[in-house]
Design brief:
This protein is mainly alpha-helical and about 325 residues long. Helices cover about 75% and strands about 5% of the residues. It has a two-stranded antiparallel ribbon. Strands 3-4 form a two-stranded antiparallel ribbon.
Length: about 325
Amino acid sequence: MNKLNNEERLALKGRRKRRRLKYIAILPSLVTLMNGFCGFASILLASQGPDMVWRPLLLPKTNISYFALAGYLIFLGMVADVLDGHLARISKSTSSFGAQLDSLCDVITFGVAPAFLMLKLVQAHLHYFDFVNNQPAALSGRVVFLIAILYVMCAIIRLARFNVETSVEDAHLSFAGLPSPPAAGTIVSLVIFQQDLLPKITKWPEEFINASGFAAVWALPIITLLAGILMVTRIPYPHIVNRVLRGKKQFSTFLLVVFTVLLIIWNIQLAMALGFCVFVVYGLVHWLITRFIRSIRKEGKTETPQPPDQQKII
């Protein structure tokens, strides 16, 4: 009898494992797929090389390099990543399928695409300066290649850990580790700054612009390595969108949002570069200050002399 019960249990488990997905939320899933499409299109554009320029028919005076356009597509994927979650909550259609689909698209858009874009940009500058035949350049190219691989691996680990530790109903007011969208945004904003903002500046000296672009390119591998490491740490980072949109806020928060919107309207490339870099540094500095204060408090408690026990007088 016990044997039959065990067989029935195994059969029941088999039926549960073979359970098929019957219903999905169409609109949030389509927006999530748009995120993955933007990441794949960004990789395609970055693979075309630095000499390719996009000239739209409706705006003949606009010239955008394929590298900058690849970066803008990653930001468009970031917008889709924000919208799909809100659409799922508004339509009350949050599901495990949507969470898994979102993470798979995030791996493409915020993991593979920014690492590939960084790698192609650095390789292009190695080619331009004719350093390919030199041993230091070959070594630096291999190091940049390893940094790109490490960043992708960290993004995959970070998203897998997020899926395991977070349920669909969580409020997501904070993250353990740097989220993958800001990590990708930090890399991509510097690419856009170097590709789309610096070439349009005519008031600054040409030597200064060239030096700034060169410094931005060679800072990218270091920033990519730092962003990858921060993704797999436990350093807390706030969820900016959920914290700003939910509930009533102080007047200072309102002023900060207005200032951010005005900065974006004035110069979106500079606003993206400053915003993402400040966000990354803020989480790291806040964590270090918090640990330092806690260590001081612990030392103060241990060094405080305990009052002597009162001896009973007989």
